[in-house]
């Protein structure tokens, strides 16, 4: 698995987790979803992604985006 796919998979899991938490725990968890979306948006423009840095340190092969 490349770094790009790992980051996309992680983002997808986090979005789904935040939706489940919003539905079943407390509506304020929607802000976690907002944070994830904002982080993805800034990453698209700046190329800076903390998750990509962590996955790269773990040893994932570089992809095209990160």
UniProtKB/TrEMBL annotation:
The keyword Transmembrane applies. Pfam families: YgaP-like_TM. Residues 2-56 form the Inner membrane protein YgaP-like transmembrane domain. Gene3D superfamilies: 6.10.140.1340. The keyword Membrane applies. The chain crosses the membrane at residues 7-25, 31-55. Keywords: Membrane, Transmembrane, Transmembrane helix. This is Inner membrane protein YgaP-like transmembrane domain-containing protein.
């Amino acid at each position: 698995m490349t770094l790009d796919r790992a980051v996309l998979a992680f983002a997808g899991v986090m979005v789904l987790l935040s939706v489940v938490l919003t539905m079943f725990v407390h509506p304020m968890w929607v802000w976690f979803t907002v944070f994830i979306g904002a982080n993805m948006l800034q990453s698209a423009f700046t190329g800076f992604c903390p998750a990509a840095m962590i996955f790269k340190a773990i040893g994932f092969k570089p992809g095209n985006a990160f």
